[in-house]
Amino acid sequence: MWIRRNIRQQEVLAPSNEDEPTQEWVYDEVYFQTTADRAEIEANIDRYWELGSDWSPAVPMTDKEMIAKLQEELQEAKANLTQARTDSDMAIAELTIVLATMMAPTV
């Protein structure tokens, strides 16, 4: 959906100095995607203008960007795995101490 506002004619200088200035239409414009119908948009034009101002299309990543993202995710997964292993080792050590204490003969 395209929305335009502040539509006006503006004088534009001709490419060469000999030509007369011409008039062209200028405007502010936003684009967004929606399932709303025209009546809904016209009833809430300011809200939809803001939606269009904030909207950005989904642009596919380049190969380099995808590789960089995957490498970052891999590093994060490695860090999480290392932390999980450390946590597991600590839990085993604590359980070993508790079991050793429980199995020790009491005097």
Any overview of this molecule?
The chain has 107 residues and is an alpha+beta fold. 53% of the residues lie in helices and 20% in strands. It contains three helices and two strands; from the N terminus they run ββααα. It has a two-stranded antiparallel ribbon with strand order 1-2. The mean pLDDT is 89.
Q: What's the quick description here?
A:
It is elongated and about 110 Å long. The protein has 107 residues and is of the alpha+beta class. The chain contains 3 helices and 2 strands.
- Overall residue-averaged pLDDT value: 89
* Gap between N and C termini: 84 Å
Strand adjacency order, main sheet: 1-2
Low-pLDDT residue spans: none
Number of helices: 3
Biggest sheet character:
2 strands, antiparallel
Which sequence of SSEs, written as H and E, runs from N to C? EEHHH
Strand content: 15-25%
Shape: elongated
Structural class of the secondary structure composition?
A: alpha+beta
Q: Radius of gyration from the CA trace?
A: 32 Å
Percent range for helical residues? Answer: 40-55%
Using DSSP, what is the number of strands? Answer: 2
